[in-house]
Amino acid sequence: MSTLPYLTSALEGVGGRIKECPEDFLVEELPLYQPSGQGTHVYFRIVKTGISTPAAIDRIARHMGVSAGEIGLAGLKDAQAVATQMMSLEHADEARLAAYRDAQMRVVWTGRHGNKLRPGHLAGNHFTVKVRGVGGDRLPAAQSILEVLMRRGVPNYFGRQRFGARGDTARLGEALVRGDLGEFIAVFLGRSRSDDPPDCRAARDAFDAGFLARALDRWPRHYHNERRALAALKRSGKQGLAIAAVDKRMRRLYVSAFQSEIFNEVLAGRLGEIDRASAGDLAQKTDTGGVFLVQDVTTDQPRAERFEISPTGPIVGYRGNLAEGPPGEIERAILARHNINLDDFRRVGTLKVKGGRRTLRFRIDSPTLAAGSDQRGEFLELAFTAPSGCYATVVLREIMKADLPDSRADTDGGSQDA
Q: Which of 58, 70, 213, 365 lies at a C-alpha separation of 20 to 30 Å from 4?
């Protein structure tokens, strides 16, 4: 994220720090629909503090005696936060589910519905975030930036969370798309870095030195995918079997991260145009989500100014469409820089990377900005609602003009709302 340009680069940021404790970052899912009250699927709302969504799912699954894959969810929520989100489980003992509580999460509501909750089944998320180390004297500067974002939209970058704690998920995805099995294995199991946890660094060093048995012995037990991949490689000597041992959801995550990187590069190249309709754009209608080719700029630009439509960038895949005209030239140049084409995404087989479009901007609703203080010092508090799949950290990055801390947040192949 630090290398991506700011929309509001002409305005000085307020600085500060976020996520010093989970209670400084509150996020609440806004459901796309309410459970009907009937059906075989039990919907349940959890409040979790300081843990990832996958960790929360694993705890519920163990409590209910089911596999994690049986639990449905609409989106993933940041680990370093207090997050409220909905999940579902079919044929569940509703009373047993409702009683779940531990030190970091609890079930606060249950209801019934006719289908499993799926990724994307949410209207948006409401965020309340404290920016620490910033006093009321910086409130006017923050307000000036917020006014630009309200008028033009927020750059719809994928946040740092999308690219993993090591920042290498896009590299892994690119290797899968290219069919470069050796590169995937080298990044996934080796290439240690000074900021790796010591136990993981020891395992990666052993792998890089060619000592597979030693590497397997040193990988911590909870690194299940790395251990499975390494065991398969040690047993068979075949890179393809090693990659197949990695959980399919994780492989989909890696390809999604590569798609996200390409989108971010397109957005960075068009940052000054996120509120404009250009000839050749594939624009999205705000009300229906329909995508159409911009041909008459004089008609469509006023619609963009009213937020009725927004230009889009590619989520590349083998069925994806690229824009035409100058916007399309930017997209094709970035694909060429990575030396890939859309059809390369067929290489990942059963992951079904079809592709799509994503708006270059998003609109925040009902924003509030205030100064305050508590026992931990001064802060600015920003609250707003954002659409599903959009990152609160992108809004904060524009206001703070500061590198945000690497997040150990959740990531998946669909939406991410941290």
A: 365
List, in sequence order, every residue forming a beta bridge with 111; answer none if it has no partner: 43
Q: 61: exposed, middle or buried (C-beta count within 10 Å: 0-12, 13-18, 19+)?
A: middle
Q: Within a domain: residue 95?
A: yes
- Residue 162 within a domain: no
Calculate helix-pair angle for 198-208, 181-189, nearest 10 degrees.
140
pTM of the model: 0.88
Q: Where are the alpha helices (DSSP H) in 197-293?
A: 198-208, 212-218, 224-236, 239-244, 248-269
- The DSSP 8-state label assigned to residue 389 in this structure reads T
Question: Token digits for 11?
Answer: 């305005």
Core vs surface per residue 310-343: b (16+ CB within 10 A) or e: bbbbbbbbbebbbbbeebbebbeebbeebebebe
Place of tokens 């006023």: 302
Q: Verify that 82 and 3 share a domain, yes or no.
A: yes
Question: Is residue 357 located within the same domain as residue 408?
Answer: no
Q: Up-side HSE of residue 45: CA atoms within 13 Å toward CB?
A: 14
> Of 361, 379, 398, at which residue does a domain stop?
361
Do 274 and 386 share a domain, yes or no? Answer: no
Domain around 240: 169-249
Q: Which residues are catalytic?
A: 78
Tell me the H-state helices in 279-380. 297-305, 325-337
Q: Are 1 and 141 members of one domain?
A: yes
104-141 per-position pLDDT tens digit: 999 999 999 999 999 889 999 999 999 999 999 999 99
Q: Give the tokens for residue 10.
A: 């002409």
What is residue 415's predicted lDDT score, i.e. its pLDDT? 38
pLDDT tens digit sequence for 36-52: 999 999 999 999 999 99
Which residues pair with residue 87 across a beta bridge?
44, 73
Could you tell me the pLDDT band of residue 310, with boundaries at 50, 70 and 90? very high
Statement to judge: residues 139 and 9 lie in one domain: yes
